[in-house]
Amino acid sequence: MTTTLLPNFIAGRWQTGNGTGTPLFDPVLGTELARVSNAGIDLAEGFAFAREHGGAALRALSYGQRASLLAQIVDVLQANRDDYYAIATANSGTVARDSGVDIDGAIFTLGYYAKQGQALGDAKLLLDGQRIRMAKDPAFQTQHIQVPTQGVALFINAFNFPSWGLWEKAAPALLSGVPVIVKPATATAWLTQRMVKDVVDAGILPAGALSVVCGSSNGLMDQLQPFDVVSFTGSAETAKIIRSHRAVSELSVRCNIEADSLNSALLAPSATEGSEAFQLLVNEVAREMTVKSGQKCTAIRRIFVPRALYAAAAQAIGAKLAKTTVGNPRNETVRMGALVSQEQKTSVLAGLTQLKTEASVLYDGNAQPLVDAGADSACVAPVLLGTETPMTAQVLHAVEVFGPVSTLMPYDSIDEAYAMVRRGEGSLVCSVYSEDPVFTAQASVALASSHGRVHAISPDVATLHSGHGNVMPMSLHGGPGRAGGGEELGGLRALNFYHRRSAVQGSSLALDALAAQGVSLPL
Ligand code: NAP
Known about the structure:
By secondary structure, this protein is an alpha/beta fold. About 35% of the residues lie in helices and about 20% in strands. Strand 13, helix 9 and strand 14 form a beta-alpha-beta unit.
């Protein structure tokens, strides 16, 4: 059955693309859910409308007023939460807990920025640092300021977070006064489109402040102009195309990239089999491998343990994974749903084959039957791989399999462990499990230069911590090197991407007048 096309919201109106469009499927049942197309839509008109109308209207407001808009968006999303869960079940194949990571994670992040933004009050610009004297006479000084960029923020997003991926970027952009155009990944575009529709229907934002374009990415980057910004989340291959586009290479459009990542979990050298640190690592690895079927950019892909604990760790993680029932997310006994599409299943299985050239299988959940789902569904059960010779491995440190797959590796010294972690060439997050605060601090310093986040876990925070893979709005998200080199969130630091910094050199009187309109970020 051919389904209907989801309309795009651009240039302040709903517009349906031409042609039959691209179908979106239920990854468990295989049924078609909706179609997307932006063929024939005047993108240039849409970008100009956002820049001129959306941007001007948002910049006329203070940070506090824009924060109130975020709070109103939270209310709308809360009111429609059940519908979002139903869409996630159908289109992403996720169990309720995993849908929550995307949907409630988004609402929480928006709420956080609404609150933080409120504290910026009626200011319309950011004061950056203190005034600095430029002459012997203090009458002439310099004050750095940050003002919202006078362009649009284009978000090109990945399939795994259709909700959070939109709002974790839109919250700081809108708070900054910058209009948003989001292009969701096609496979799961429905949830993003529906959330934008609900917010548009509620009439919260000024015209042009929020647009959604579903379907092909063709021509989107061509619309960008010097004061626009683009924030991309997705694969390293597509990131390369974005980085080399004329908009970035010639027009200096500011570009943030969140790409793939071979995140690690590291157990301290002093850990023993019965220790709390050991158990904390085992619990977290099993959780990370199965939440959203391992389709999290932050998921643990490599696990490093002291060599003496290799067999015990393999056994303990495998035993935990064996409790994970996989199948149709509508069945209440199912703990883990499907991958988002048949394409992803093909990609995960191909990646597994690659990893197996250097690793053996320590646990394979695919030996157990799926619950309420056929072998032709996009379900793939967790697989724990392992190698006893990780120092000579290549593929294991280079290939990200975007599914419920992780590889256990022993180390002989902590320096060897750090060296192997760094062979991921820059990652989003590394978690460290230890009972010794001095070791934890040393490890954090050693790992910080190659990670956007170090998640340092000890028994005293066992019941408090936010999880290795959970991206929290108050902490930085992003990583150097192959992780893309980007930075998102990190509290109000996120506003930097959507502002331009300028040094105003002038008389103290003029700087006094300037300061009256500004606020310093409480970082
Ligand atoms: P992808 O294939 O690179 O697609 C990402 C987005 O780019 C989609 O919206 C896609 O649209 C669009 N796109 C494709 N070709 C394009 C082009 N030539 N120009 C402009 N846009 C283009 O990635 P994915 O498969 O959706 O996502 C999985 C990857 O994302 C994984 O590697 C994962 O690690 C990474 N990821 C990273 C983070 C992070 O925060 N670091 C978060 C989530 C995911 P279509 O869908 O229409 O093709």
